TrEMBL record:
Site keyed Essential for prephenate dehydratase activity: positions: 175
Protein name: Prephenate dehydratase
Pathway where this protein functions: Amino-acid biosynthesis; L-phenylalanine biosynthesis; phenylpyruvate from prephenate: step 1/1
NCBIfam families, A to Z: PRK11898.1
Lineage, highest ranks first: Bacteria, Bacillati, Bacillota, Bacilli, Lactobacillales
Length: 282
């Protein structure tokens, strides 16, 4: 089986994918849309893409593409603790504080703002396509006063020296990854929770439409763990709502709630009903 992931190798997505699919052929994609298209066009059987981070929130590229562009189901979720490391070329290990530029993925830069502000208040921040890309670039330019923020595996792969350990702003920093391509996906990782994710749109001409939609869950005592709005990309002021439902009630009760929303004129798109698999950070 082939499993696509947001690459390159040694990125957090690669770490999560390798842990969840240790014996499968892994295929790297340069972007989230490219990875999703890889599943859509049959280049790979499954795909792994980031969906949310503790600090930065939802990965809108994933949410929007899965809502607007495709009907590929979500079959599992992987939760990975994120530990960011500051790394430099080994020749610059003793002078790492002289770095004038810090490279990393925008999410990693945002997750490490306090450390950067304290240690490199004047440094230029440069966004890269991935954390692994930043590490590779630093390794390839040892003559420059630059540093990368990336996972520990990147330092090992590109022979860099880690000079700042676990520099993320929040100690419990996690990223959720969706495994897409099948309705139910078995992983060799324990799971004790299940979630249903839906996208909800309500008619604009119904007063209190969102309140009425949420009420169908409330009176049934169905637990919602997340709700956020995203633009419908039709008319200014029109949105769809991304809702995570903790599947603790009988399935029929949840289906009845969704049917009541439809009877009110709402539209429901189901992303997936899937198990949550927490794994150890790397």
């Amino acid at each position: 089986m082939k499993v696509g992931f947001l690459g390159p190798e040694a990125s957090f997505t690669h770490n999560a994918t390798k842990t969840a699919f240790p014996d499968e052929e892994l295929v790297s994609y340069h972007s989230i849309p490219a990875c999703i298209k890889g599943v859509e066009f049959g280049e790979v059987d499954l795909g792994v893409v980031p969906i949310e981070n503790t600090i930065e929130g939802s990965v809108n590229t994933t949410v929007d593409y899965l809502f607007h562009q495709t009907t590929i189901p979500v079959g599992a979720e992987i939760v990975l603790p994120i530990y960011q490391q500051l790394m430099v070329a080994r020749s610059n290990k003793d002078s790492w504080q002289d770095a004038t530029k810090i490279l990393s993925h925008p999410q990693a830069l945002a997750q490490s703002q306090e450390f950067i502000r304290n240690e490199f208040p004047m440094a230029e921040l440069e966004a890269t396509p991935s954390t692994a890309y930043a590490a590779n670039y630093v390794a390839s330019h040892p003559d420059q006063k630059i540093a990368a923020i990336a996972p520990k595996l990147s330092a090992e792969m590109y022979d860099l020296a880690i000079v700042g350990t676990d520099i993320q702003d929040v100690a419990i920093n996690q990223t959720r990854f969706w495994v897409i391509g099948a309705e139910k996906i078995e992983l060799p990782i324990g799971s004790n929770e299940e979630k249903l994710t839906i996208a909800l749109t309500m008619p604009n001409n119904i007063p209190g439409a969102l309140h009425k939609a949420l009420a169908v869950f409330s009176w049934r005592e169905i637990d919602l763990s997340k709700i956020e709005s995203r633009p419908l990309k039709t008319t200014l002021g029109e949105y769809f709502f991304l809702i995570d439902i903790n599947v603790q009630k009988p399935q029929q009760l949840i289906e009845n709630a969704l049917e009541e929303i439809r009877l009110m004129g709402g539209k429901v798109k189901i992303f997936g009903n899937y198990a949550i698999h927490p794994i150890n950070g790397v």
